[in-house]
Amino acid sequence: MNDTLKKTPLYDVHLGLGAKMVPFAEYEMPVQYPTGITAEHRAVRATAGLFDVSHMGEFLIHGPQALDLVQRVSVNDAAGLTVGQCQYSAMCAEDGGVRDDVVVYHMADHYMMVVNASRRDQDWAWLEEHAQGLEVTLEDCSDGTGLLALQGPRAQEILDPLTKLSLDDIAYYHFAEGTVAGFAATISRTGYTGEDGFELYVAEEDTVAVWNTVLEQGEGLGLLPTGLGARDSLRLEMGFALYGSELDEEHTPLAGRLGWLVKMDKGDFSGRDALVRQREEGGHDRLVGIRLTERGFPRPGYPIVHDGHVVGSVTSGTVSPSLGYGIALGYVPAGLVSPDTEVGVRIRDKVVPGVVVRLPFYTEGSVRR
Amino acid sequence: MSEIPEGLRYTEEHEYLTATDESGVYQIGITDYAQGELGDVVYVELPTVGESFEKKATFGTIEAVKAVSDLFCPVAGEIVAVNESLDDDPSLVNSDPYGAGWMLRLRVGDQATVDALLDAAAYKALVGE
């Protein structure tokens, strides 16, 4: 494969497990293992799956004005975060377009921002730009950090024997620093699947050992190594947006179902004026979930049709492994966003009927909110 | 390494033909290599019995998690049976492509068109295995 693609610390381990590797955000990543995407998807819903997401970027923000920088670039309000708490957010351009979706961690004496691999360079430049005049130091830890996501209803049962931390004390969107299998780790009760689970930040050189120990621990409990294919169908069943599919600089968080993140009254931040204006004016396209009511596989780019007119296009779609029918996300005009609105998806020469539904598509997840 | 049984005929579009008990009737499906490349099959759209197809005409589509592909008729013929169990369980194409995951039975007029297709060795060379 392409020699210019980057590899995570687990590259050889994936090959050893028989993974199919694909280019993703400049990395060569496992899309599936021999069990296949459907089996991996089901394992995460029923028991657990282990994902390598080491391609994600981690930036540390040190210094007395670290919070000020976070507040400038992030639409959510980080002021109320306690040490050990993290928060989903977005970074916006001045015109309100989404530059990235991120998770902000309040560590003991600094903040950590976890960013999408595909946006790492742009995000770094953006932070540097906004750090000017502030007493902060930025550190890019992405290359030195491995990240594993252990997701599924049995995640805690698998992780518990490997750490001295009391996992019950780590609430959803909280984290603690400790060890996993004897290696230093930040254990975060977060994920992208709708299931309970943990994301484990470890040193690059410990990543293989932690991965292997967790997989061994999950043997007999139904744990499978799981790839990007299952990660995508799992997040899609939850209606979670993916940067580059649903989210981009052409769409604001208000349009992309992330309005709940935007805290207009926290003080100024990049994009605020534009977002205030958009909220007042309304009338903009919005991201919706569509359920197909007849057989069909909606794929990205397929037209969304209402009353014989193309009104949008699918940003992500699949046949839900959990639900058995076609599901899609896509932007439609403001008048078509109410649940039960009839919209179809044109699949090759045929419009397959469907309806707008409330998200998530899948409501049985084990996530502890 | 995918399974490429001897004695079958293959196409460059990764379909196979295998003889049935009835003379002139061939069973058609996609190869083990093809199902591996496609990934988990979600739907298979097949024609109805009695339809006729020319060589390389599209007789259906296969929707897998990763991609959708057209299915091409390897030789000219008339459909005498379709595998209806794929409606309920399309994953048979993944688990048993040469057996329970078959797609069509085709009555072929001209035996020479079958003989002209790839044999196992030629198909193996095509897929680089």
Summarize it.
The complex is a heterodimer of chains A (369) and B (129). By secondary structure, chain A is an alpha+beta fold.
Bin the strand percentage of chain B: 25-35%
CA gyration radius of chain A, whole angstroms: 20 Å
Largest sheet of chain B: 6 strands, antiparallel
CATH superfamily of the domain at 6-53 and 143-237 in chain A: Probable tRNA modification gtpase trme, domain 1
The coarse overall form of chain B would be globular
**Largest interface: pair, residues per side:** A-B, 13 and 11 residues
- For the secondary structure, the number of strands of chain B is 9
Count the E strands of chain A: 19
User: Would you identify the CATH architecture of chain B?
Assistant: Beta Barrel
Arithmetic mean of pLDDT of chain A:
97
The helix-strand sequence of chain B is EEEHEEEEEHHEHH
Q: What is the average per-residue confidence, as pLDDT of chain B, rounded to a whole number?
A: 94
Instruction: Assign a percent range to the helix content of chain B.
Output: 10-25%
What is the name of the CATH class of the domain at 6-53 and 143-237 in chain A?
A: Alpha Beta
SSE order of chain A, one letter for each helix or strand: HEEHEEHEEEHEEHEEEHEHHEEEEEE
Please bin the fraction of helical residues of chain A. Answer: 10-25%
